[in-house]
Write a structure and sequence with these properties.
Helix content is 9%, strand content 31%. It has a 4-stranded antiparallel beta sheet, with no helix packed on it. The radius of gyration is 11 Å and the shape is globular. Strand 2 and strand 3 form a beta hairpin. The chain is built from 1 helix and 4 strands; from the N terminus they run βαβββ. It is mostly beta strands and 65 residues long. The longest helix has 6 residues. The chain starts with 23 loop residues before the first strand and ends with a strand.
């Protein structure tokens, strides 16, 4: 179960998330369908899934939940 992050800012593609942000691995069921997503982490903010590049902490995509 994913804990939604409390949004103090609205994250956009290219922004960095704080080191304290709780990031989760992409579920295997999703990674099987879209293998390229396996390299990313994600978090929930404002009912959106925000994909994060763990190497840079940058938002790479936002998905409506």
């Amino acid at each position: 179960r994913v804990q939604p992050a409390t949004a103090t800012v609205e994250y956009r593609v290219g922004m960095r998330v704080p080191e304290s942000a709780q990031l989760y691995a992409v579920p295997d069921t999703v990674a099987v369908e879209v293998p390229a997503l396996r390299q990313y982490k994600y978090m929930m903010v404002n009912n959106r899934v925000v994909l994060i590049d763990p190497a840079t902490s940058e938002v790479v995509a936002e998905l409506v939940n």
